[in-house]
Hints:
Elements: E1 7-8, E2 11-12, E3 25-29, H1 45-50, H2 52-58, E4 62-65, H3 93-105, E5 109-114, H4 124-131, H5 137-140, E6 144-145, E7 168-170, E8 176-178, H6 193-208, E9 213-216, H7 258-270, E10 277-280, E11 300-301, H8 304-308, H9 313-329, E12 335-337, H10 346-349, H11 358-363, H12 373-389, E13 393-397, H13 418-422, H14 466-469, H15 476-489, E14 496-498, E15 505-510, E16 513-518, E17 524-525, E18 530-534, E19 542-543, E20 547-552
Parallel strand pairs: 3-4, 3-13, 4-5, 5-9, 9-10, 10-11, 12-13
Antiparallel strand pairs: 1-2, 6-8, 7-8, 14-15, 15-16, 16-20, 17-19, 18-20
Bound molecules: 1-deoxynojirimycin.
Pfam family, one: Alpha-amylase
GO molecular function: hydrolase activity
Domain Glycosyl hydrolase family 13 catalytic: 28-434
Amino acid sequence: xxxxxxxxxxxxxxxxxxxxxxxxxVYQVYVPSFADAxxxxxGDLRGITDRLxxxxxxxxxxxxxxxxxxxxxxxxxxxVSDYRGVDPRHGTxxxxxHLVRRAHGLGLxxxxxxxxNHCSDQHPWFxxxxxxxxxxxxxxxxxxxxxxxxxxxxxxxxxxxxxGGGAWTRVPDxxxxxxxxxxxxxxxxxxxxxVLADFEGILRFWLDLGADGFRVDVxxxxxxxxxxxxxxxxxxxxxxxxxxxxxxxxxxxxxDEVHEIYRAWRKIIDSYAPAxxxxxxxxxxxxxxxxxxxxxELHQAFNFFHLRCPWDAEEFRKVIDxxxxxxxxxxxxxxxxxxxxxxxxxxxxxxxxxxxxYRAWLxxxxxxxxxxxxxxxxxxxxxxxLTLALPGSAYLYQGExxxxxxxxxxxxxxxxxxxxERTGRTTRxxxxxxxxxxxxxxxxxxxxxxxxxxxxxxxxxxxxxxxxQTGRPDSFLELYRTALSVRTRFRGDESFxxxxxxxxxxxxxxxxxxxxxxxxxxxxxxxxxAVLLASDxxxxxxxxxxxAVWTAVTxx
Length: 556
Ligand code: NOJ
């Protein structure tokens, strides 16, 4: 854990390193599903504060809180109607202050989400825009255009929403507005000076309240090519979440102009001490990702290449090399991510055949093919040791430390993701990775809270609970706890070198320890070295398939 302040009750702490984030482990708290103190079935800030000991005990350095701002909840909080408040379902600003104080007291940093690409259609600006005529200043904060065709009844361009359907919605006076996501999430116009100024104020607001940084939602989408006539994309916009095609000059993804925004933000961030950070959610090509983390822009960017990498030694090696060289070229280190609230949980992904389309599999009911859970279990444990050994910062998604699988059999009427309705109930969205956490084997919603839970917890959920895993040496939770404590002992040396490896094996040295992972189907004899930790048993001195081991370099 990293000290946050210089003077803490109980004695002075060492000065926080200005670059504490380079090798930090950040735990993603998906606020609606972490812990619910008030019993309304939806997670809240007080619930998180009550459970901070779990995070401190796990050994993470920081938590990232997903949006908890006032929101009509079309997209579970990623549709913000007031950027400077707390939604009553999640608590109050005082609850936020208290959470930050308590987290800092435990040596934990607190990163909040900023959602700058779009707001909610219930935001006062959008209400004002709708009440104002075409061409007005109020409309200019959004992207309003006339439609095509003789009566303007066709959308201004063929752009598609990432949640299905078109990216334009018509208003009663005949104009259309743009939304990359749902119609209730109108895109803001980042060429408008009100928008720029307001977000600078929003950043300062949360920094002044003690936030240690921001996760930037859809960081690659803010600037659009709005030169008339708008260019069609030919449908190349929404094949999957955040995956623009490399190298294309796309009208709304990954445009060069977006970097001006982050240069301005960085100046604000750097005016605060101790050091605050920013991390980009930017689904861009590996060649373009480092541009977001140049020294005068954002600090980090999520590494979705690692998340998407097939279970294959050569593929991982390529991703690791590309990530390290890209990050180093701009003087930083990569992040490593296996799961988040938008993707099928990795335990389940690893239990399915390579190359499968996970969302299609989910939409088909999650039974064809049936997941091989024992395989997913082994691989998820090995992947944790791989991820936590690599140089850079690791982002853990809540529940991965419990080995939670995707819940793929939620009843239709329980689904809340807008993707479900916007695709005419054909694409099951992201609810299955957002099921409220189990804290206790039994009791009301397995300790999530005194009420129910906004998404149903399936039978057997209690077996994954924190109390069911605590003290059980073979549990996921104890693996993560030990891995994080070993990682902390070895932190500080960023050096990385590949070691000679056998077929299907990854082997590397990171600072003073070595990591080996067997991705082949054959057991491999264990090399020399004192074992620090293994993801599974090393019976007969062999590294079994889908197993990882950390060993100390002699003298390390
Ligand atoms: C990315 C977020 O992670 C996702 O949950 C959200 O739906 C979209 N951005 C829109 O804000």
